[in-house]
Amino acid sequence: MEKLGRDDELIVDESSLKSFSLLCQGNFSYVCLMKDSKSRRCAKKSSPMQHKQILEKELRIMHRFRDHHRIVQASNKLHIQIKPSECYIYMEYASEGNLHKFISGLEGKSVPESLVQRTARMILEGLEALHSHGYVHCNLRPSNVLLFPSKTPGEPWDLKLADFGSSKEPDSGYGWMYFGTAPKYMPIESFGPKGVIIDPSLDIYALGCVVYEMLGAIPIQDYFDEYYEWNLRRHISPEARDFLSRCSNMHPHRPTAAYLLNHPFITQILPSPTTEDNKEISRSLIPSFSKLLLA
Fold it and tell me: To which CATH superfamily is domain 99-290 assigned?
């Protein structure tokens, strides 16, 4: 048996595990939902052996932040399988899906600003932990933000950062073939002659894009380049607009995650939705969660 964290519910009994469904598939790996004889669930992430070093790095990073409340937890070791030739790890299962599926489930509706604020704060908590120890996520996007049942009464979910296969570790080189960020989450300087600058500001820019996406903005590609600009037509608070402006600053002028955790958009107490539009959006969240669980 293996433990994925301090909680006794995060124990993997590999001898009785059975695969139930494919959760997602990427360029270098795929993830399946697994259940054991006691109906405990976990996620199994597998890669072909030629990409073993990616999964090894991912496991190292999750172990470095073991028991951090904003980083997904994983098994003690990398497992090797002969037929087919694969390696795999076990991770805690995100029963509420991921942020991408949540946004897609809203069917074009934007998210109430109070929930966007809470989401941004939790992402920043994860980024601050990574950055303060010399790591850069390098692939922050909604599909890599996993959702778990909330421990706070009245809140829909808590979140954790996942997918560290593209991440940069401290005092290490960077394998460009594994760079994972999609163009719409990359800053404009990434498309210049110097290429992508791998430092914490890359994650800060991507965070701004995630916030834009939750607020209903549409990414529009530059006519002559791969660069995207986010077009937001919805009215948002001055605090939210300033937060997005700071995330979108040119390198090297973006603030740190620690600084943004004290930004007014993150620290202000936002009231519950009061307009009819926001009330309707809030009511729509509940059926969206049901869709995610059935997906």
Answer: Transferase(Phosphotransferase) domain 1 (1.10.510.10)
